[in-house]
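Homework help thread (please don't just give me the answer)

Our assignment gives two proteins as sequence + structure token strings and asks us to describe the second one. The first is just a warm-up. Here they are:
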Amino acid sequence: MNSPGLCDILRMIQKALRRGLPGGCNCGEIRYFVTRPFLTAYICHCHRCQKRSGSAFSMSAVIPADGLQIVAGELLATERRLDSGAKNLSWVCPTCYTRTHTRREGSGTINLRVGTLDDTSNISPVAQFWTESAQTWALVTDHILSYPQQPTDYAPLLAAWKRNHPTCL
């Protein structure tokens, strides 16, 4: 039997997206479905993400704000002020405090924490931010966009995602 090709895999992902990609918090109280395609995925090495994740980096997938459907539980919203003065909102499980996603005030997208998906095996980042803060052993060096700080232009990330995840009809 032949292995599935890229278009076969993408068709399976598209079929799953029609139902939604399932995910949730660590304790199981919160359950959700991602119902819209990813726009891009990236790693953040900033010190704040290192502290918030308790790890060397965090990984996020960017999706349209209406692409997350909470089907069980009720998330707790928290906020912090960015250096620019804008609000960054985070949603966490009120029981286990797993952070599922964030959204900058006024943004049409959310940053979903990839680790909260039930299956992360087919999601690979196309970029990494804040490499100047990264643990040297945690840097990805092959085939990924790298930025020493926060990028100001996200078009290359969107283009890289589309290039690596072509649409098959």
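The one we have to describe:
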Amino acid sequence: MTFTPRNVSAVIGELDWNAGTEEPPESLLEICRGRARRVFEGIGYKIHDNGEHEKIVEFIARYEVSSLNTKNNYGELWEFAEKFGIVGKRFAKPKGLILYGTYGTGKTTAARVISSMLGITMLTIEGISREYRASNGEDWLRDTVTENLKQAMIIDDIGNEDEMKKFGNSSPMNAILSSRALSYEWYGVPTIYTSNILDPEKLGQFYDDRIKSRILGTVQGVFVGGPDWRLKK
């Protein structure tokens, strides 16, 4: 059976919606925002120079707080969770992000920081292409989608034209991207994307309108501008 998003529910079984709607304490969010800013500034990422970058900080803070009610992933933050009495409470995870802009402005760097801080799996278009071709493509695709459906994910470099051409007319990206929309719709689980496009609406150049709509309906856009980091080295 060819694996598609349409039969994914048959693979994972019953839905188990567990997203909350309660707003977390502002004081705890501010602690998490401060942690994120320090990490970015430690690598020379000038958060305060770009208001768009604050959207990344806010995502990290809200994701951290929404995850504190399940297990101690964040060291000293667990003590704050107990202090604020939120252990066991369910807070909604934030919408995902699409970090977009021209080459070399730090989109992938920001995505790696998010991955490292939050323990989120990060895939690249090039890596997906390589794995899909090097293994039993359908089995790999099914495992990748189903194992991560209830988990946040980062997908780097969507709309990479050269990699899209390698897939031909049966791109596994259609299944992966559609499944990520289901992750948010069914479980409130966000996805972070990066892309070198200058306008998210232009994703329609690489994916059909249904997939473009699903991506844009589950993310907040973050324009990452500025000079090319690579030219500074």
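TA reply:
I won't write it for you, but here's a hint about the kind of observation we're looking for: The chain has a mean pLDDT of 79.
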